[in-house]
Amino acid sequence: MSAALTLVGVALSSCASSALPPPVSVALVQQRGDIAPGRVQLRVTNDGGSPVVVTSATLTSPVLTQPGGGETKRPVTLSPGRTVDLPVKLPALGCVTGDPSAQAVLRVEEDGSAHEETLSVTDELGVLARLTATECDREAVASVARISVVSAAAGADGTIDLEVSIEPTGEGGAGSVDLRALRGTPLLRFPAGTETPLDVTVRADDPPSTMTIALTPQRCDAHAIAEDKVGTLLDLVARVEDRDAVVPLERSPSVAAAILSATADVCGLTP
Asked: 81-118 as b/e, with b when 16 or more CB fall inside 10 Å?
């Protein structure tokens, strides 16, 4: 079976045609550790009275440009009443203004027969609505300029200095974006508080530029740095297309590692 299922609600050739749908339910969650790697969890619960084996789980939604997920690393057995989280790496997201409702395609084995079933996914926390809203904001800002952290180092005055790159698209008719502020994280703050003003207007036909932002550690316990999940994901607050937008400030894994290393340096945790 391929990694991404495309046949929805069609029984596998090995299935008994009279078999009943599996007694399972599916909910969508996104934990703190899922945000940086760009994934969600399909929380599958066996609501029935006999064991169920899940061998594949695929997530579909108008928010996703293609299905996400596929075969599990190994068959997952759910005894009656058991719940398990199945990680799904998110494909590219789309900016969707309509219903973001999701479905899960599960390949399950129950009582010796296998089935491929399509189930509605409960999203009580509005994960998909939040993801597509963020993508809409991201696209609006990116239509004017790409804004990203390109380096990080410990400063001489006990700060962590970020170099932020601003690369306008060069398209004169694409308008402008007002960069209003950066927000701190559970790990990092600014010398003046949890948010720092920027007050920078960028036009699509401006030349490239950079700015340096000073940060200070919010906490210096070694395990907080070593086990960091979202501490290097600063939110950019902007005004674009006559609306407010909040997007995670882009940074590569290597820059994220540099931010953590500089934090350790400033905290005195490195030799």
From this structure: eeebebbbebbebbebeeebebbbbbbbbbeebbbbbb
Query: What is the DSSP-derived secondary structure letter of residue 62?
Result: T
- 106 in Cβ contact with 24 (< 8 Å): yes
pTM of the model: 0.80
**Angle (nearest 5°) at CA 33 between 31 and 38:** 90
Strand partners of residue 168: 145
N-term to C-term CA, the chain: 51
C-alpha distances in angstroms, 74 versus 53, 87, 114, 115?
Answer: 10, 13, 15, 17
Residues with Cβ within 8 Å of residue 47, at least 6 apart in sequence: 23, 24, 25, 81
165-203 tens-digit pLDDT: 999 998 877 789 999 999 999 999 999 999 999 999 999
Q: Answer whether 55's CB lies under 8 Å from 109's CB.
A: yes
From edge to edge, which strands make up the β-sheet containing 39-46? 68-78, 52-60, 102-110, 113-122, 24-29, 39-46, 83-89
196 forms beta bridges with: 182
Spatial distance between the Cα atoms of 122 and 128, rounded to a whole number of angstroms:
11
Domains of the chain: 24-130 (2.60.40), 143-266 (2.60.40)
Lowest mean pLDDT among 20-29, 213-222, 260-269: 20-29
